[in-house]
Amino acid sequence: MVKNRYPLPRIDDLFDQLQGASWFSKIDLRSGYHQVRVREEDVEKTAFQTRYGHYEFVVMPFGLTNTPAVLMDLMNRVCRPMLDRSVIVFIDDILVYSKTREQHEEHLRELLGVLRRERLYAKFSKCEFWLREVQFLGHLVNQDGILVDPPKIEAVMYWEVPKSPSDIRSFLGLAGYYRRIIQNFSKIAVPLTRLTRKAVDFRWGHE
């Protein structure tokens, strides 16, 4: 399978758009990948075998290499008129943001109209509307700024002592997500990254 090179957006760039916003709504697509049909000539590439028989996906399944990039591309094209103005899209997560309540009503109406026209369906139980503060992509967002989501901080603080290089990689993956707000993150993480190298014996110590 040829890897789709469509880039996922940087979280920093997305959040830069939120300056001055004070009203938020969050919309989650219902099984977003499954709302995209696989091209007929590509269906056979999704084939898999079980003891019950041979199956093929006619909609885009979870887990394939290109699914995030394909859905991201689709959502960017669908929401293009609203991007950088009132909507942030990250794969199947949509955030509507506005400076005033009146604007927010207009922005919501516009987005919901687009989703309806394109036959893209949201999971209502996971949607939140008319918020003054919202959790989005691991951050807490309100009119005063952007904070790290408290449960994410707790996850870092109470992470179990690593017992292997793979444990350290998992921890660095979580903590590194917030490197933009941790001064000298790379320097601080040097003792940990050193232990992930193949030529280095894994010995956990105070360093």
From TrEMBL:
<keyword id="KW-0540">Nuclease</keyword>
<dbReference type="GO" id="GO:0008233">
    <property type="term" value="F:peptidase activity"/>
</dbReference>
<keyword id="KW-0255">Endonuclease</keyword>
<dbReference type="InterPro" id="IPR053134">
    <property type="entry name" value="RNA-dir_DNA_polymerase"/>
</dbReference>
<dbReference type="Pfam" id="PF00078">
    <property type="entry name" value="RVT_1"/>
</dbReference>
<keyword id="KW-0808">Transferase</keyword>
<dbReference type="GO" id="GO:0003964">
    <property type="term" value="F:RNA-directed DNA polymerase activity"/>
</dbReference>
<dbReference type="InterPro" id="IPR000477">
    <property type="entry name" value="RT_dom"/>
</dbReference>
<keyword id="KW-0645">Protease</keyword>
<dbReference type="GO" id="GO:0006508">
    <property type="term" value="P:proteolysis"/>
</dbReference>
<keyword id="KW-0695">RNA-directed DNA polymerase</keyword>
<dbReference type="InterPro" id="IPR043128">
    <property type="entry name" value="Rev_trsase/Diguanyl_cyclase"/>
</dbReference>
<protein>
    <recommendedName>
        <fullName>Reverse transcriptase domain-containing protein</fullName>
    </recommendedName>
</protein>
<feature type="domain" description="Reverse transcriptase">
    <location>
        <begin position="1"/>
        <end position="141"/>
    </location>
</feature>
<dbReference type="InterPro" id="IPR043502">
    <property type="entry name" value="DNA/RNA_pol_sf"/>
</dbReference>
<keyword id="KW-0378">Hydrolase</keyword>
<dbReference type="GO" id="GO:0004519">
    <property type="term" value="F:endonuclease activity"/>
</dbReference>
<keyword id="KW-0548">Nucleotidyltransferase</keyword>
